[in-house]
């Protein structure tokens, strides 16, 4: 009788094994086998077990494997990595799974060859493809969490998410442990509940700072008051996306050449410097009108909406030359200048840094990486079956994991330590949606993510022989349209495509998806401890309103405005935890899950990794002996996604 050898691999995650009954049946072109109980009583984490399956009749070419899980004592989830089948002829067929099987359920696996819908000519494969999408669309439903937000998955809490996109147990624990470790290592538990208790002076902040040695954060602590460090952060800090070249002086910033002439080094007027491209602006108008945090009646908190003018000097450095702390000019909204009294100018810069922190956390980090990646991820699950090449190669599978758990873990920060907590952060997202255009997610042509784009183009070439194949791939078009229609209520106005008709545009689209969830997130997330741990450089809240006159502020008043001891500790613990890699982190180009079996794709992945290794070497060489190295975009420090 025909005999098949079935090898079953269980995942290495916590609790990946199961004690439930597991049944397997083979579906071939000439028939279907009976159900076979895989009779080893326990499946241990990381185990690889083999079984002989004897069938009564020839099955022909094996097309599907059906797995059923039935309760033993209680429901025990099982993470199945893959199944390898050795046929009676000695051929091996790989059936990748890499998903959880929960409750009493059944899953059907196809072999590891990625296929477009047009490649499936056999009825049973077409039917499997259709049923998988029908099931997914019931599991992954769009929901409007709050008006004006990108749509999200229909889940009120983490446990409501489909099992395959829930945060891995160890990752959730890692975040909590990192937060607790920060409390312990920084020796700040004793300050955690000291709300309303001000620090004595700037040096007093070192009590919660110096316990962890970090080159960049120590440089920030030592030089944060300097204009050069202030300007440097707009280019190389954790929020390097706000600065813009000034082509015309803002109408609501009535600054003149006479006011800033001591900062201009080329003996030109301010207008002439603008024409030469030497003036830059950072406008925090999104913060204008945002409600402040009122969750603690014992502490008043305040926001500003500054406009900051910067200058590229003869040393090719960016330095601030004028700061107005609110949007409407007037006698009670002075323009602060480097020529002002020391503490007037310092306080104005602190307000800008605090404003930058709010925009960074809520817009640059949360909205433009986590929430956007969630939209792409839900649409992928809903419209692309597991066998689709884009579903397999793009590694969107883990992109949803982590957003919701981390937001839950961060709620104390938002409510207690952040001036936009308690509702202001929601208003910020709603206001900034008008700027969330598709083109703003496309990396600029001159500094394009070339390694990622080359990889996407190569994979697209493997599976799409022509632009016509792209246009006729209905599953792909449904994926793109889901993002356009449901993922963003403003899709038509924001330039998101509702269809893709060429290989080039498909490659661009996939580059946007991957870059946003990997490199972009790394650039704005993992430097948070570096740049935000020294509290005066990135205050999460201010406890007095912006000054309305010059010449009266004292250093004691500045210290009293900064976050109290309790809020400082909440803030420091959060930025430390967010900046840590997980113990089992997977970085860009690391794909341990064998979703593909085709040689051309494996070769493309190997070339991608080689190109990334070259970039790592170039960046490492560039950073040698630098006091302020920039390594956030080094591929060996870019996790595969926002969640891993």
Please explain how this structure is put together.
Helices cover 39% and strands 14% of the residues. It is built from 20 helices and 16 strands. The strands form 4 sheets. Strands 2, 3, 4, 6 and 9 form a 5-stranded antiparallel sheet that branches. The longest helix has 42 residues.
Tally of strands? 16
| Strand residue percentage | 5-15%
Mean pLDDT: 87
What count of helical segments does DSSP give? 20
Low-confidence stretches: 396-406
Helix/strand/pairing category: alpha+beta
Shape, per Cα inertia axes: elongated
Short description:
One of its GO terms (molecular function) is iron ion binding. The chain is an alpha+beta fold.
Based on the model shown, name its key terms.
644 residues, alpha+beta, 5-stranded antiparallel sheet
List the helices and strands and how they pair.
Elements (H helix, E strand, L loop, with lengths): L2 E8 L10 E8 L2 E2 L3 E2 L10 E7 L7 E9 L7 E9 L5 E10 L3 E6 L12 H17 L2 E2 L8 E2 L15 H17 L29 H9 L3 H10 L7 E2 L11 H4 L9 H6 L3 E5 L23 E6 L5 E7 L10 E2 L5 H42 L5 H5 L9 H15 L6 H9 L5 H4 L8 H14 L3 H6 L1 H12 L5 H4 L8 H23 L2 H5 L22 H7 L3 H14 L20 H25 L21
Antiparallel strand pairs: 1-5, 1-7, 2-3, 2-4, 2-6, 6-9, 7-8, 10-11, 12-13, 13-14, 14-15, 15-16
Helix pairs in contact: 2-19, 7-10, 7-14, 7-16, 9-19, 12-16, 12-20
């Amino acid at each position: 009788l025909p005999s098949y050898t079935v090898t079953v691999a269980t995942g290495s995650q916590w609790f990946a094994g199961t004690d439930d009954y597991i049944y397997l049946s083979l579906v071939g072109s000439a028939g279907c086998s009976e159900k076979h109980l895989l009779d080893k009583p326990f499946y241990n984490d990381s185990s690889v077990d083999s079984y002989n399956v004897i069938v009564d009749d020839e099955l022909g070419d094996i097309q599907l494997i059906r797995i059923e899980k039935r309760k033993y004592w209680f429901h025990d989830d099982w993470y199945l990595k893959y199944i390898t089948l050795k046929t009676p002829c000695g051929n091996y067929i790989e059936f990748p799974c890499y998903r959880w099987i929960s409750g009493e359920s059944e899953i059907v696996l196809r072999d590891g060859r990625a296929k477009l819908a047009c490649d499936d000519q056999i009825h049973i494969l077409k039917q499997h493809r259709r049923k998988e999408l029908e099931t997914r669309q019931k599991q992954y439903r769009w929901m409007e969490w709050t008006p004006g937000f990108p749509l999200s998955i229909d889940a009120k809490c983490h446990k409501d998410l489909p099992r395959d996109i829930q945060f891995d147990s160890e990752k959730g624990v890692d975040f909590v442990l990192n937060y607790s470790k920060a409390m312990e290592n920084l020796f700040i538990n004793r300050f955690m509940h000291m709300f309303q208790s001000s620090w004595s002076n700037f040096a007093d902040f070192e009590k919660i700072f110096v316990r962890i040695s970090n080159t960049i954060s120590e440089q920030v602590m030592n030089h944060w008051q300097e204009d050069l460090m202030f300007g440097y952060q707009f280019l190389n800090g954790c929020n390097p996306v706000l600065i813009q070249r000034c082509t015309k002086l803002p109408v609501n910033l009535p600054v003149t050449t006479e006011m800033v002439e001591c900062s201009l080094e080329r003996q030109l007027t301010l207008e002439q410097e603008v024409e030469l491209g030497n003036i830059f602006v950072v406008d925090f108008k999104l913060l204008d009108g945002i409600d402040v945090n009122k969750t603690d009646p014992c502490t008043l908190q305040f926001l500003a909406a500054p406009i900051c003018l910067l200058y590229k000097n003869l040393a090719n450095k960016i330095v601030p030359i004028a700061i107005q702390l609110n949007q409407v000019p007037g006698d009670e909204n002075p323009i602060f200048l480097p020529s002002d009294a020391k503490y007037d100018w310092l306080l104005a810069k602190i307000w800008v840094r605090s404003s930058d922190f709010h925009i960074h956390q809520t817009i640059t980090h949360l909205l433009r990486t986590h929430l956007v990646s969630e939209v792409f991820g839900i649409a992928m699950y809903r419209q692309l079956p597991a066998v689709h090449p884009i579903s397999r190669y793009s590694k969107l599978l883990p992109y949803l994991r982590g957003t919701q758990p981390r937001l839950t873990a961060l709620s104390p920060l938002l409510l207690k330590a952040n001036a936009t907590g308690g509702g202001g952060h929601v208003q910020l997202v709603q206001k900034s949606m008008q700027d969330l255009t598709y083109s703003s997610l496309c990396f600029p042509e001159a500094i394009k993510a070339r390694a990622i784009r080359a990889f996407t183009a190569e994979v697209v070439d493997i599976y799409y022989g022509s632009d016509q194949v792209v246009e006729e791939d209905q599953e792909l078009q449904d994926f793109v349209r889901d993002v356009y229609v449901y993922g963003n209520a403003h899709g038509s106005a924001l330039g998101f495509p509702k269809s893709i008709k060429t290989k080039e545009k498909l490659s661009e689209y996939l580059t946007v998806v991957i870059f946003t969830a990997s490199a972009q997130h790394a650039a704005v997330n993992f430097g948070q401890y570096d740049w935000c741990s020294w509290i005066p450089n990135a205050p999460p809240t201010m406890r007095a309103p912006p000054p309305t006159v010059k010449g009266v502020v004292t250093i004691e008043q500045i210290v009293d405005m900064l976050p109290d001891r309790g809020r400082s500790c909440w803030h420091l613990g959060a930025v430390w935890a967010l900046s840590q890699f997980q113990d089992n982190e997977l970085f860009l180009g690391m794909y341990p899950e064998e979703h593909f079996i085709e040689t051309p794709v494996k070769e493309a992945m190997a070339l991608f990794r080689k190109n990334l290794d070259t970039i790592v070497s170039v960046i490492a060489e560039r950073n040698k002996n630098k006091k302020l190295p920039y390594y956030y975009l080094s591929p060996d420090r870019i996790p595969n996604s926002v969640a891993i």
